[in-house]
Amino acid sequence: MDPEQIHTLTGRRPFIAFRLHETEGLFPRPGTPEWGLMNRRRAELIRKDISGVLTPDERAEYEALQQLSLTALDDAFPLTPPDEDRTHDAQAPR
Predict the structure, then answer these.
(1) Conformational region of residue 13, where left means phi above 0, alpha means psi within -120 to 50, and beta covers everything else
(2) Which tops the pLDDT comparison, 16 or 93?
């Protein structure tokens, strides 16, 4: 289901395109007002899931938001590679 179909059915415009390869530049960056709006929608979907009233289309939206959120966070805050020397020193017997 594309975003326009969701808007027609629900009266809401989703914050994302559902195909990951179509989202470059469309998904909000962490810390922006748009990120906050997306997170509110994600929280709404989580509450509906917990209540057992999440529709199949909402589940697809929720799963896409989860995946895109994790990707956006990984891009914004990449993990630093482990320092092999420090790891080795920490594991060495004293």
Answers:
(1) beta
(2) 93
Q: What is the pLDDT of residue 18?
A: 43
Q: Which long-range contacts (CB under 8 A, 24 or more apart) does 90-94 make?
A: none
Closest Cα partner for 37 from 28, 45, 50, 24?
A: 28
Burial annotation 44-77 (CB, 10 A radius, 16+ → b, else e): ebeeeeeeeebeeebeebbebbeebbeebeeeee
Q: What is the pLDDT of residues 10-67, one digit of tens each?
A: 555 555 444 444 555 667 788 888 888 889 999 999 999 999 999 998 998 898 888 8
Instruction: Identify the pLDDT of residue 48.
Output: 95
